[in-house]
Structure formats: structure tokens, C-alpha cells
Automatic annotation (TrEMBL):
This is MIA40 protein. Residues 22-31 have a biased composition (Acidic residues). It is found in: Mitochondrion intermembrane space. One of its GO terms (cellular component) is mitochondrial intermembrane space. Residues 57-93 form the CHCH domain. One of its GO terms (biological process) is mitochondrial respiratory chain complex assembly. Keywords: Disulfide bond, Mitochondrion, Oxidoreductase, Protein transport, Redox-active center, Translocation, Transport. InterPro entries: CHCH, CHCHD4. It comes from the Eukaryota. It comes from Aramus guarauna. GO terms for molecular function: protein-disulfide reductase activity. Residues 11-32, 95-131 are annotated as: Disordered.
């Protein structure tokens, strides 16, 4: 295995340590890295990506995310519309894996909320007017 048990004696602790610190290895699979590796590459294994880099749309995600990350446009990512469209089209083929908010449901819900408000307001006016 990767672990090794070493027992230290009292005599071992009497002399100063000669251990040398080794710089982190960016290729160490056990070392947790952030989204961007020290060499500037994207860490596709970062838990922060929520597994988006794997799965049926992983390649489309990588393409879109890479384009955005390396974009030098004034409006960052404005040159990546095609890649993001391809990713979205792929995700729509797998709604169980990539659930999306249904914009139509949201619009219907908010319009029902707006419709309810004027009705309640007119009902309140009628009550106040009859007193």
C-alpha cells in the first residue's frame, strides 16, 4: 500500500530532524487541487465541477468550459456561443441526468401570481366599498 508505519524511539527524538519538505506534485492524484492546476490547465477531476466533465455530454462541457476559460474576448466567452449551444443541446437529450428548470413553468407560475394579485385587490375594494 501507500502507507507505512514507523515507530520512533526516545533516542530518535533527541536529535534534530533531518526531514526535507518536498514541493507538492501537481500530478499527484491524491493531492486535492482546485479548478485550475498550477500549470494553468483546467483540473477536470475537480469536485467543484460536479462530474460535468464526464458522462454523455462531458466532451461538450469540456469544449464550452475550455473556450470560456481561455477566452480573450472583451466580453469573456462571447466567442463560445456555439460550444455552449452544443452542450445545451446534448443535455436536453438526457433530462434525467441534467435536470433543467422549465422556463415555461416559471413563466406560468409568475403570471398566475400576477393574475391573483389584481383579483385579490378588486375583492378588497368591493369589501371596503360596501361598508
Amino acid at each position: 500500500g501507500k502507507d507505512r508505519i514507523i515507530f520512533a524511539t526516545k533516542e530518535d527524538h533527541e536529535t534534530p530532524s533531518s526531514a526535507e519538505l518536498v514541493a507538492d506534485d501537481p500530478d499527484d492524484p491524491y493531492e486535492e487541487q482546485g479548478l485550475i492546476l498550477p500549470n494553468g490547465d483546467i483540473n477536470w477531476n475537480c469536485p467543484c465541477l460536479g462530474g460535468m466533465a464526464s458522462g454523455p455530454c462531458g466532451e461538450q462541457f469540456k469544449s464550452a468550459f475550455s473556450c470560456f476559460h481561455y477566452s480573450t474576448e472583451e466580453i469573456k466567452g462571447s466567442d463560445c456561443v456555439d460550444q455552449f449551444r452544443a452542450m445545451q443541446e446534448c443535455m436536453q437529450k438526457y433530462p434525467d441526468l441534467y435536470p433543467q428548470e422549465d422556463e415555461n413553468e416559471e413563466k406560468e407560475k409568475s403570471s398566475k401570481d400576477l393574475e391573483a394579485t389584481p383579483l385579490e385587490a378588486s375583492a378588497a375594494k368591493e369589501k371596503n366599498g360596501s361598508s
